[in-house]
Amino acid sequence: MLQKPPNPVFPAARPVEYTLAVMRNARYDRPAPLFSKTNPKRAPRFSARQLILGALALALAAWVPGAQGQPDKGQLVIYTIDVEGGQATLLVSPAKGSLLVDTGWGGNNGRDAERIRAAMKDAGITKIDHVLITHFHTDHVGGVPNLVERVQVGEFIDHGVNREDSDITRHDDAAYLKAIEGKRRRVVHPGDTIDIAGLSAIVLTADGEHIARVPGVKPEPNAYCASEPHWDLDTTENPRSTGILVRFGKFRFLDLGDLTKAKEIPLVCPENLIGQVDLYLVNHHGFNLSNTKAFVDAIHPRVAIMDNGAHKAGSPEAWHTVHESPGLEDLYMVHTAEDSDAAHNSADPLIANLKGGADGGYFKVVAHADGSFSVMNSRTGQTKDYPAQR
């Protein structure tokens, strides 16, 4: 098991401005005996052929998935695609229902759209049922024009109106709206659901608002709130992010886009409305503007994936908060955070794209309804399993 480094001294944090440069056990009954020792004359007689066929039938029944205990529900597959510090997360259900959260950047000869298509091919799908745009920053929405040129999309989902007073965000919002003209668009609010065959996906946050209660989750007091400082609300699109909780049986995946600290806190303070999760896509690529201790410790993730870039996010403070959260087993990173230090980067087997190496490495998560899952690093081809706990 990889050992966590001791508590570090953080390098000095640099201010972030939202410019284009920055956004870059089974039970069996005992069978009755075929023959009776007390009355062998009444024992049934079978031909050799009948015995062989019977044995084959029993073996087949034991092999067929779902023949014992709960029926087989297949698997949920999640791809954390490398879009160089943006977001593009593809979810494919056992019934091949699909949801793409964000589209990465535009331009670059359609690089991010092609990486999304590669994930689709691996998943065995030819279209995307739903594309959810968390917010209108270019590293999340910019890839829509390239995507619609290559991929059939059932519907686009977003939080509605752009709320950020900046030229670049207005430009990318307008480009998005133009690209989806004539296509189905749905504006969602906290509490709304996204219908994906075999999955439960509920909207937790949208347009600066949050859900009052998550069905099936009992709110619990959060002891971490008392020590959490006050955080001011920023005026960008980030706190407007549309965030979702996806449930597949006992498996729970959380993706809140670029939600910032002031909007994380109401989800977990004074009570934790979300509960615990198995897989956490680290908020905001691991920027220190997000990932409060009260939030991360409350959701208690088993595994986290940080979709940072080589020179974007992966902040030491955010990395440390997630890495040291109670119960965390592993923190994966899409890239080595090259502007950080070794103490605030995960071990190489947990990184999809190493410093100085080729880009495009991704993580593939395969989840099962019993809560077990695995993470495969495409760079190494290695898979780590996480057995069911709850």
Give a structural overview.
This protein has helices spanning 20-23, 48-63, 111-123, 138-141, 144-150, 167-179, 261-268, 293-299, 316-323; strands at 76-80, 89-92, 98-101, 127-132, 152-158, 185-187, 193-196, 199-206, 209-210, 220-221, 243-248, 251-255, 271-272, 279-281, 303-306, 330-335, 351-353, 363-367, 373-377, 382-386. Helix 3 crosses helix 5. It is 21% helix and 23% strand. The protein starts with 19 loop residues before the first helix and ends with a strand. Strand 5 (152-158), helix 6 and strand 6 form a beta-alpha-beta unit. The chain contains nine helices and 20 strands. The longest helix has 16 residues, at 48-63. It is an alpha/beta fold and 390 residues long. The strands form three sheets. The protein has a nine-stranded mixed β-sheet, covered by helices on one side. Strands 7, 8, 9, 11, 12, 14, 15, 16 and 17 form a nine-stranded mixed β-sheet that branches. The chain has one domain (74-386): Metallo-beta-lactamase, Chain A (4-Layer Sandwich), CATH 3.60.15.
List the helices and strands and how they pair.
Elements: H1 20-23, H2 48-63, E1 76-80, E2 89-92, E3 98-101, H3 111-123, E4 127-132, H4 138-141, H5 144-150, E5 152-158, H6 167-179, E6 185-187, E7 193-196, E8 199-206, E9 209-210, E10 220-221, E11 243-248, E12 251-255, H7 261-268, E13 271-272, E14 279-281, H8 293-299, E15 303-306, H9 316-323, E16 330-335, E17 351-353, E18 363-367, E19 373-377, E20 382-386
